[in-house]
Amino acid sequence: xxxxxxxxxxxxxxxxxxxxxxxxxxxxxxxxxxxxxxxxxxxxxxxxxxxxxxxxxxxxxxxxxxxxxxxxxxxxxxxxxxxxxxxxxxxxxxxxxxxxxxxxxxxxxxxxxxxxxxxxxxxxxxxxxxxxxxxxxxxxxxxxxxxxxxxxxxxxxxxxx
Length: 161
Fold this sequence. Notes:
Elements: E1 5-6, E2 10-11, H1 12-21, H2 24-86, E3 112-115, H3 131-140, E4 142-144, E5 151-153, E6 157-160
Antiparallel strand pairs: 1-2, 3-6, 4-5
């Protein structure tokens, strides 16, 4: 009978008998190690194939640019030889018609306005100004924070624009 050796060391029968003689935690650990090893090998093979694919892609891209540049150089060489041998002048590139630039006139109009700022938050404690506080500030010009007691006095600010 032909014996099949795994890795050239053990036969399948010897390996299975060795595995079955291990305690339960040893068998679980062997399975986990085998799965981890398989996962690592798969990841390694994936990244090797990905690296080789990128390498081939960029080599082919570089060769394409190189060949394109060589053909463009040959084209320009024959074009120069053509104009040199025939004595014709090269056609000039059409330049854009330059017009005098239009001056933009910006009209600045000064606006003065009086604005009454209304606070949204108390500068002392940071709590939000309530509607009643805002109404009191609009009516009498003075209001106090309901949380910390800081007083606010409304006044007009002149804004020049």
